[in-house]
Specification:
The chain has a 7-stranded mixed beta barrel. It is built from 3 helices and 7 strands. With 145 residues, it is of the alpha/beta class. The protein has a single domain, classed as Cytidine Deaminase, domain 2.
Length: 145
């Protein structure tokens, strides 16, 4: 599988992570799916509802807000294809918490935010049998996409 993200959309993801540093920032990726190819069209940054003392290493999205985002995506002719979140001062690889809560129908885009500056991003997907997450190809388009 490959995740294609236009440069301006990736910039939004990075900016959200930097803005919320040292806490994890998170949100939904809206786009389209064709076979194993997922193309991001826009993102919806969302509040991190985890307990304030642990937001530097955990995120929690409100299920009701996800349902509302799914309705919005449908109105736009898109679908929720994944979740993005930041890892403050940690590598962009799934944590145990990420593994425990991941679902196979989303792609997970994790961006490292080191000392307040977004850097490397990597995409992951949970296997259907829920045994582990595997890295997915990530392509960031230049320009308008």
């Amino acid at each position: 599988m490959k995740l294609l993200i236009p440069g301006p959309v990736m910039d939004e993801i990075r900016s959200h992570g930097e803005k919320l540093y040292p806490e994890e920032g998170a949100g939904l990726i809206l786009g389209s799916i064709e076979g194993e190819h997922r193309e991001a069209r826009r993102v919806l940054p969302m509040p991190n509802h985890f307990n304030s003392g642990e937001r530097n290493r955990r995120y929690l999205l409100d299920p009701q807000e996800i349902l509302q985002a799914e309705e919005l995506a449908e109105q736009l002719g898109l679908e929720v294809i994944g979740i993005f979140h930041s890892h403050p001062d940690h590598p962009p690889a799934p944590s145990q918490y990420d593994l425990d809560w991941a679902v196979p129908w989303y792609v997970y885009l994790i961006t490292r935010v080191e000392q307040g500056a977004a850097s490397e991003s990597r995409a992951w997907r949970m296997l259907e049998d829920h045994t582990r997450m595997v890295e997915q190809a990530l392509e960031i388009e230049d320009g308008e996409g």
